[in-house]
Specification:
Helix content is about 55%, strand content about 10%. By secondary structure, the chain is an alpha/beta fold. It has four domains: about 260 residues, 3-Layer(aba) Sandwich (Rossmann fold), CATH 3.40.50.300; about 70 residues, no CATH class; about 120 residues, Bacterial polysaccharide co-polymerase-like, CATH 3.30.1890; about 180 residues. Strand 8 and strand 9 form a beta hairpin. Helix 3 runs antiparallel to helix 16, helix 6 crosses helix 9 and helix 12 runs antiparallel to helix 15.
């Protein structure tokens, strides 16, 4: 607010801060948690007292009715020759031999035979614990409740137990220790000697297993692995695999080449160059003889022609003989060529078949070698697994052998370690449980639980409670917040006329703040007509419309307040000269003019138009052309027009009218409207593209750490002199403040 002092928690966001606050979304911040804790401080204190009382009561109940007394005894493992037996490196793979012995004895204390021997003693049977424990579970209960452990860094084994009777833990612990010592003495053998015998047996079994594993390894290699497979020599399967792979590659290349030649010689459609075959034909003896005769005859013909002439009988005879030779030479050449081609085709076909056969044989050998190699790889992997197991067994054998040597050195030292009772259990002097630290811890936890419950209740509350809820969850600007009338110190009979009746009250100051924020939310020419509505009835929309119109009118602007709630009108209750006989509905149906429907009020610059008779079709009237004409005419006459409309979620009237006005103010009632309800109302307005100027949170209650608590006191302290010198005007009859 701007007109009176406020605290940080109660400051209302001005228009300049809207973008910043709306960007926070629905996330809760650390400041919100602090605000919740401040607001619910009374609840937190009450819950803290309640939960703290429960915690203290439970602690006292257990302290008085179910206390626990604990008693303990110490068993010492004494070394007679520490310089020799304890200075040597007595270590197994992980622990010191002496420490391992102490831990073994701590475990042996809770052995079943020792607990059974202790339970059979008359001393234990006389205890309250023995009588209250069922017979079938006594040993199990004793094993669970009895503690036996080696105290690190010392020679002691601690045996302790807690019981509700003060004398029981001393008796039971001492009897268990006695049963343990008796059992050890009855054994007649040093604990180290028993452990040495056990370890030797384990070592012998391990050596036998190693020998068996070595024999299995040799038999496996002999029966399953070929000679040289472990070293990959040339005679191994891997070398054969490489050889046959190379052979297959060579034969595949040769086969492809022969296949190409075979197709050339067998395909009649493909042209073939027989130059080599023709050359081979020319060297044939028969062809050579005929070619020689041809050349000889040609020479003779040339000589005869020169001597006798071309037409001489000798020349003609020689020509005829030449024709015979040429006629014999041509078919002979074709015959020889065909014979050579056929022979070549047969040779290529035979070579192609032989190459295919050799390729198949090589591929079979390769597949066989691959199968053998795979089998050898599998067997080799099994062999390597056996080798690894054998190596692990050998390592275990070496560790056990080293441990045996250490134990033998300890056993050889006479009385190297002895067991004796260093401290017997005594009656406890005070209770061990419940622990005293639990009392303040319970109180602190009760406070934390109380704060958690308070925060959880606030988070589970989905109602609109604070101005931040308007901005964060509804995501609209906040114009202001109106305090609840019950928290107002100035007496106000009718909240709808508070601006007129109690101008110096906190409530009226809140409406002035809303007026100021509204003026700065946009240009004045875009706020000529404003619709005031709410999600549901009884949210205070009529209260906001009346007081906001009065505040603007007192600011010097001409204002018209119109009752557009044609279903449940309310303005006539707060203005004496406004009745239901003549109003907005009369004007919209043409039964009255504007002059007769506009009523003056006691406030300057403020006129009112009532609803008139209730029509059967309110939405149609509010969306009619007459309504548009009414808005245009009134906008030219008045500076600002306020419409009091029905709730958005109950009637369509507000949605229809919101499309005609310049802006909409949404009124929410604190702790009554849920976030979902308000979000649905905003969603409906946004669907019809209504311009939402902002929201007003009505009836904000004063609470610790909340809004208006400090403002109320500070405001009236600051305005005390002004209020005391100002007389209030007469009050109007009380109306329905929830409209």
């Amino acid at each position: 607010m701007t007109a009176f002092p406020t605290t940080t928690q109660a400051q209302l966001p001005m228009p300049a801060d809207r973008n910043r606050e709306s960007s926070d979304g629905g996330a809760i911040s650390f400041g919100d948690v602090i605000a919740i804790l401040r607001q619910r401080m009374v609840l937190i204190v009450a819950l803290w007292v309640l939960f703290g009382a429960i915690a203290v009561g439970l602690w006292l109940l257990f302290w008085i009715k179910f206390p626990t007394y604990t008693s303990e005894a110490w068993i010492e493992c004494v070394s007679d020759n520490p310089g020799e037996s304890l200075s040597i490196a007595q270590r197994d793979p992980e622990k010191d031999v002496y420490e391992r012995f102490a831990e073994s004895q701590a475990l042996f204390v809770k052995a079943p035979e020792i607990l059974d021997r202790a339970l059979q003693t008359p001393e234990v049977q006389s205890t309250t614990w023995y009588r209250e424990t069922r017979e079938d579970i006594r040993r199990l209960e004793l094993e669970d409740e009895l503690y036996a452990g080696h105290r690190k860094g010392t020679n002691y084994v601690v045996v302790s137990m807690g019981c509700r009777d003060r004398n029981d833990p001393r008796i039971i612990v001492n009897q268990v220790v006695r049963a343990y010592l008796t059992t050890v003495m009855d054994a007649g053998v040093s604990p180290f000697e028993r452990e040495l015998s056990t370890i030797r047996d384990e070592h012998n079994k391990l050596k036998s297993e190693i020998a068996d594993k070595r024999k299995r390894l040799l038999d496996f290699a002999k029966d399953n692995l070929q000679p040289g497979v472990l070293f990959d020599n040339p005679g191994s399967i891997s070398s054969r695999l490489v050889y046959y792979a190379e052979q297959v590659a060579m034969l595949e290349t040769a086969t492809r080449e022969l296949e190409g030649l075979y197709q050339i010689y067998t395909d009649p459609t493909r042209p073939i160059d027989f130059s080599l075959e023709r050359a081979e034909v020319e060297i044939d003896p028969q062809i050579g003889n005929l070619v020689g005769r041809q050349l000889n005859l040609e020479q003779q013909i040339a000589v005869a022609t020169m001597r006798f002439g071309r037409h001489h009988r000798t020349t003609r005879n020689l020509q005829q003989e030449l024709d015979v030779v040429v006629g014999d030479l041509t078919p002979l050449r074709e015959q020889k060529l065909n014979e050579i081609v056929a022979l070549r085709r047969e040779q290529i076909a035979t070579a192609y078949q032989n190459s295919q056969t050799a390729l198949l044989a090589a591929m079979d050998e390769l597949m066989l070698a691959e199968a053998e190699q795979k089998d050898q790889d599998t067997k080799l992997a099994q062999y390597l697994d056996l080798v690894e197991e054998l190596d692990w067994l050998r390592e275990q054998s070496q560790e056990l052998n080293k441990f045996i040597l250490d134990l033998e050195r300890v056993v050889q030292s006479k009385n190297a370690i002895q067991i004796r009772v260093a401290k017997r259990a005594v009656d406890p002097l005070e209770k061990s449980a419940p622990a005293t630290i639990l009392l303040p811890a319970g109180v602190v936890f009760a406070g934390m639980l109380a704060m958690g419950v308070a925060v959880a209740l606030s988070l589970l509350d989905t109602s609109v409670r604070t101005p931040q809820d308007i901005v964060r969850h509804i995501n609209i600007p906040l114009l202001g917040a109106v305090p609840d009338l019950d928290d107002e110190e100035v007496h106000i009979e009718c909240i709808e006329t508070a601006v007129r009746d109690a101008p110096h009250s906190m409530v009226v100051e809140a409406f002035r703040t809303i007026r100021t924020n509204l003026q700065f939310s946009g240009p004045a020419d875009r706020q000529r007509s404003i619709l005031v509505t709410s999600p549901s009835p009884e949210d205070g929309k009529t209260t906001v419309a009346c007081n906001l119109a009065a505040s603007v009118a007192l600011g010097g602007r001409r204002v018209l307040l119109v009752d557009a709630n044609l279903r449940r009108p309310a303005l006539q209750k707060f203005h004496e000269n406004v009745d239901g006989s003549n109003g907005l509905s009369n004007m919209l149906v043409g039964n009255a003019d504007l002059a007769s429907t506009i009523k003056k009020t006691s406030l300057p610059n403020l006129d009112v138009i009532g609803s008139g008779p209730l029509p059967p079709n309110p939405a149609e009237l509010l969306g009619s052309p007459q309504m548009r004409s009414f808005l245009q005419e009134m906008s030219a006459t008045y500076d600002q027009i306020f419409f009091d409309a029905p709730p958005v979620l109950l009637a369509n009237d507000a949605l229809v009218l919101s499309t005609l006005v310049d802006g909409v103010i949404l009124v929410c009632r604190a702790k009554q409207n849920s976030r979902g309800m308000t979000q649905r109302a905003c969603g409906l307005l946004q669907k019809v593209e209504a311009h939402i100027l902002g929201g007003v949170l009505n009836a904000v209650q004063v609470q610790r750490g909340g809004y208006f608590r400090e403002q109320l006191r500070r405001y009236y302290d600051y305005s005390e002199e002004l209020i005391s010198h100002t007389s209030t005007k007469p009050k109007l009859p009380e109306g329905d403040s929830g409209k």
